[in-house]
Amino acid sequence: MITKDKLENLYHRYNRREFVHPDPLEFLYRYETLCDREIVAFVASSLAYGRVAQICKSVCHVLERMRPSPWVFLNKSSPGRIRRTFAGFKHRFTTGENLSAMLVGIRRVLKRYGNLHTCFAEGLEDDDTILPALCAFTGELTAGVDGSVQHLVPSPPKGSACKRLNLFLRWMVRQDEVDPGGWDKISPSKLIVPVDIHMHRIGLLVGLTKRRQADMQTAVEITKGFRAVAPEDPVKYDFSLTRLGIRGDADLGGLLKKGREREKAFYPSVCSITTL
């Protein structure tokens, strides 16, 4: 079982600004105003799939067209202007139409609530996690929008792990040397770990889950395991753990050795944590 001491050692070693590059999180550091930073965070996290170089190029393309303030751009632009501005945009299978639909959804939320923070906080319930609020939040963003934004704003009730949405929330709610924070109406204790195939593997290796699918139920299960170690901040170690799949000098050592046979059973053709 994973121990707090080992996680704390990882946190203090890797949870530093110098280890962020290359990561779309870097774009958030350029914006001091919270109403701008939350929009930048949503755009950057939504496009955070594929090669990191292409992700950063695509995010930069979007932000350049909303200079100097994404909040002002969306509030002052009509849906038609937004669509014209991003016509021809392409990031893997995200088109300008997909992106514009998402931005129009954000614009509608800004017009109603003033900012994304207030909208999300409205959906908070007496629950261990932010899941009810996340369901309400994505509902607001996609209201009146067709299915063209489903891959950018996935629906939690449909079972998706919502990795990029939970990454967005980590950036906006937590505050330390890496995560800039600012959403002070939400407690970090309610966050859900952003789970992709890499984090799923780690969860399997250290015994936090036995589930075969990296879905929302698995994400909640893995979060529950981390909450037992850090109840006030279960997502605290996410950045440090994800560095292990990126940096050549990163090594989980004994933390993962006992779980290798379990990983082979779930990922028989791709057992790639040997470098961790």
Summary of the model, kept short:
With 276 residues, the chain is an all-alpha fold. The protein contains 14 helices and 2 strands.
| Beta-strand fraction estimate | under 5%
Overall morphology: globular
Q: Structurally, how many domains make up the residues? A: 1
- Which range best describes the helical content: under 10%, 10-25%, 25-40%, 40-55%, 55-70% or over 70%? 40-55%
Total E-strand runs? 2
- Sheet with the most strands: spatial strand order: 1-2
Low-pLDDT stretches are 258-276
Spatial extent as radius of gyration: 19 Å
Structural class, from secondary structure content?
Answer: mainly alpha
Largest pleated sheet = 2 strands, antiparallel
N-end to C-end Cα span? 17 Å
Query: What would the average pLDDT be, to the nearest integer?
Result: 89
Alpha plus pi helix count: 14
Question: Helices and strands, in N-to-C order?
Answer: HHHHHEEHHHHHHHHH
